[in-house]
């Protein structure tokens, strides 16, 4: 198992007014390919910040971040965009679908950045839709779908470009029990059958049970690191 | 091009707002099309006028006449093809409320100078044979129900004839078609020889000499030569091309160009503000959506371009509608009667497109820039 | 009373939250300001023209022209006719018992505008010796009156301001004659101030014309007009038209004022429609932005009338501000500006007049603005009233 993500002595701080706030203190972390990692911790612990660093949405104040062999802490903003397009699939708590587009149009959005032909794009969208089990809802707009269905569209969008890493921020946070289970099952299936590496931030212990590894963060530092048997 | 769906969908996020903004843009460009269309129409109509015809009048004003003796001298200027002369008769039919733009002239020379006028040769001959003969335009004859062979009485408040009357009797010997000339060609011609003989005063007085040139490029030289010829005579002349004459007449009316531009300017400035506001609002509402696009890998620049494209689409689509409407208005039968053959010049449509692009950029840039500067993390966190 | 208190309370809330919607609200203000500014400016032209025309002429002055003349300049009266007119009934007589009238004749001059050198036609009016009695409003404000039998002219105040070469001492050439400018006159701000005056007999002899073109007579009283007119019509040797001076000038300028008014209303109308949609846009946004607030208020028991009124009030106030700004802009830029255009069917030459942005005109503009605001606010207001409360609250 190769290391997909390596963090070395990563720190992150913000300047709020005259105060300098340190959110992450010297994080060292390695994530292997095919891992399903759940990142947990109380609010304010810095877990979302850590997630953003791994996903290339933000850059560390200090330290190194290596993902898929790239030193993303050294990439410029423009190059970081390109890198994200090729390597990351992001899933949000509130789905963040574009309300004016249909489900399949939403899923196609990342593919517009590629050089694929229209036919090829269509094909991939259909595959993604099938994978999440929503082929019959392709033409529906987000406001015509339930919360669980919207999240599944979001997942389809996240995997359509076959990213190296799936990053999720509280994916079940806005769902009821039944839908949450469906989503977690889907994610687990993606991890096990497609060997997708997933990093998930959650505060729901039930959701964390689906992961293969649990990491706790408190006040910007890693505590508790538990690996689960598959 | 593949981004079209994305951009177009972005426009319709708030349907009512987009529709209202579009309507405002349509109306602004409708006004633009109408005003500029009329403005350009006047300019192009003026420039289309013949440059191979010159009008000679007294320098102090058209109503001050020139002696008839000038005719042969003008005719002998090299490069002159033919010379016709007009003495203003200006009467009315039955009542002063039906004015007739009538001129006394030599019919043969007249038709030589105005070669585009269609007339039967036998009519011109008839004029020479009938002292009291007159030629009238087809439309004028139709208006009053005149036919060739009719005798018509024309009243005038200026010219008393030697018989002591202010009503002159004329015989219609022919009609002509001035369609090729366009609007503005006088519609009633009497024989100068008869007029000069019968008028009580002002004998030998001509108001316009119309000169037809062999080569239009000689217009400047010949104009100058004619005016120089009479520089020290009792009546000094001023010679202009047909279009220069029309232009100066128009300018007396109003500086149409200025008025049209001023109004359009005010309207477009207001529009700029409206569109900018709409775009800014739209971007502000979609902060999280734009952030998501960025997480998906859309670069800052790409997002800027997307917003600008949206602004462009909005403005160009609505502007095209507005100008198309204006073009339709110009084709309407009511206006066709007023202005004659008049279509919206292509130039105006092109100008409109250019302005639409400008408005799109100016109003779209601040929101586009805002979208570009959006920080993903802050935007997603709702800050 | 409860209604008014409700309306007052909601409207106050609306305005307190206005700063958050500043740029959207500015859209109405600026849009309407633009419409009103343009409308008022163009109408100021026709108002100015009408004002100049209305000032011209008195009810107790009549103009006599040849039968069928369209204007004084295209009329022709011979000496015989002029003598017969003198005997007309109802003409006021001076201390010596002579009738107060002037027999006049005209010349068209080509002058150049000071502003852009455009060549325009102006009127040189030859007047009779009794002109100062016929027109007591004529006052020489600079230089002196012209003398008879000499080629001298006096120029009107507006003509002097708008055209080149009309200062005292300048010479105006026409048909070989050289007229020296010896004075500037004013006639109370009417059409005559755009013209030049000289002695009629002098003008006739220089131009070798035997006849006059019109006669202007001062009547005993405005009511003497009919007597005067009848006495002339009854005379078989005369073929003349008699018209009140005021009426004459009004007729001359009718085409022009109509054209200007039509342009003003067409352009203004189109702009107003555009402004209505801009207003609709703004007010709909205003309502959308405060859906929660509105729904909460309604749930708390505020009536729908209060909601409608408050939205309308907001639209109205914004429109009012825009209208006032627009009217003031028009006033600042154009009031008092002199423009010149063809006064009428050739009978008036180039007419110089002041644009007058009168208080009535500004009021008119503001009313227009309010109407736009009301229409633009109506539909959003109704929406605020009919909003399903439950749905709006759920959006929280």
Mean pLDDT of chain B: 83
Q: Could you say which overall geometry of chain B the principal axes of the C-alpha atoms support?
A: elongated
- The helix count of chain B comes to 15
Q: Spans of chain C with pLDDT under 50 lasting ≥5 residues?
A: none
Straight-line N-to-C gap of chain C: 32 Å
Helix content of chain B: 55-70%
Query: Measured on Cα atoms, how large is the radius of gyration of chain B?
Result: 31 Å
- Looking at how many chains there are and whether they match, the oligomeric state comes to heterotrimer
SSE order of chain B, one letter for each helix or strand:
HHEEHEEEEHEHEHEEEHEEHEHHHHHHH
Topology of chain C as a string of helices (H) and strands (E):
HHEHEEHEEHEEEHEHEHHHEEHH
Can you give a write-up of this model?
The complex is a heterotrimer of chains A (about 230), B (about 375) and C (about 400). Chain A is about 35% helix and about 30% strand. Chain A is built from seven helices and ten strands. Chain A has helices spanning about 45-55, 75-85, 105-110, 120-130, 145-160, 175-195, 205-210; strands spanning about 5-15, 20-30, 35-40, 60-65, 70, 90, 165-170, 195-200, 215-220, 220-225. Chain A starts with a strand and ends with a strand. Chain B has 15 helices and 14 strands. In chain B, strands 1, 3, 4, 5, 6, 7, 8, 9, 10, 11, 13 and 14 form a twelve-stranded mixed β-sheet that branches. Chain B has a two-stranded antiparallel sheet with strand order 2-12. The longest helix of chain B has about 35 residues, at about 15-50. Chain B is elongated, with a radius of gyration of 31 Å. The longest helix of chain C has about 45 residues, at about 245-290. Chain C is elongated, with a radius of gyration of 30 Å. The mean pLDDT of chain C is about 80. Chains in contact: A-B, B-C. Chains B and C meet through helix 2, helix 9 and helix 10 of B and helix 2, strand 2, strand 3 and helix 8 of C.
